[in-house]
Here is the input.
Amino acid sequence: MSAPDSRFVRACRRQPVDATPVWLMRQAGRYMPEYRKVRKQHTLLEICKNPELAADVTITAAERLGVDAAIIFADLLLPLEVMGLEFEFEEHEGPKIRNPLRDANGIAQLKTDRASELGYVAESVQLVARHFGTRLPVIGFCGAPFTLASYMIEGRGSRNYVETKRMMYSDPEAWDELMRRISRVLVQYAAEQVKAGADALQIFDSWVGCLSPTDFTRFVLPHTKVLVAELKATGAPIIYFGTDTATLLPSIKQTRAEVIGVDWRIPINDAFETLGDNFGVQGNLDPVALFAPETEVRRQARDVLDRAGGRAGHVFNLGHGILPDTPVENVIALVEEVHAYSAKRTHAPARTVAF
Ligand code: CP3
Here is the structure.
């Protein structure tokens, strides 16, 4: 860990802060001209696998925006490769897995002893951590077992997750084995990122909201609980993020991640109230709000901050990643508004001041 006393890490630990920390999912992405320039010369995977390039893209985005944390540039799907699944990114189509999982036999063949081959991500973390020192914390990340399993089985993004749920319901033992194998790789992968200097870890369970609360509790929670517990052992705070999770929050509490990331479909005050004390909440401006005129962007940012009400543990973010074509000036205005407006308001006092 390199910036344990930063605004972002303090908020993750629900300690008092001078202003609400803000970072944005996909802060390095196609909306940013600097990123597009690098992408003209290199594919997404080339950037991910070249620590100098990945560090450069990470640092440039964080510095340009003035955010409170740098998320390492990598992709959710990288661990699939070392487990034996090949994938590629088709221009404007998203990822495609060449040999998706079909059955228990395929699951039994997944490798779990090659996580060290993802060492290039830890190397990128190290370069970014060295660049920022105590100035800015670095966020490491990995996918969650459910969201990764959904890509492995569907072979691409999905709307209804039919094949994923078919496997879950028809062969629960194979499903559990799949979740265990993925988790085994993720623990090694994410722990290496912390060793390399990551100050926090975000687990992206982007698509978990497609599950009923009953299925989440039965098929996902037991594995996510183990993963979070093992990652907490690294000492870094854990952020568990999913979209469309309003009805899952009572179960998500049981993951015991320090911070829960929510999207805009739930007012953030409701998320704080449902989760109760002991949890930070990250979110939750609609990324599409960034297409509004700047005054409206600022107004919506203040609305999220008012709803969070200065509670300890608020980390400002979008409810999902920044979309391509988002105006960069609006993103910069958002960050500035979050800092200026939150610094003015009184934060939940850490202790009673005696007069
Ligand atoms: O700045 C950052 O947030 C760090 C970098 C990052 C990327 N992917 C780079 C990337 C992160 C945190 C991710 C996570 C990721 N990857 C998720 C979880 C977050 C989420 O959005 O829910 C998922 C589901 C993936 C898988 C993935 N990668 C998809 C579905 C796509 C295609 C969608 C698209 O926007 O084209 C990608 C490609 C990808 N990964 C891009 C970036 C910047 C797109 C731009 C490019 O092709 O260069």
Q: What stands out?
A: The domain at 7-343 is CATH 3.20.20.210 (TIM Barrel). The radius of gyration is 19 Å. Residues 25-30, 39, 44, 71, 73, 75-77, 89, 94-95, 141, 157, 204, 206, 321 surround coproporphyrinogen III (CB under 6 Å). The mean pLDDT is 96.
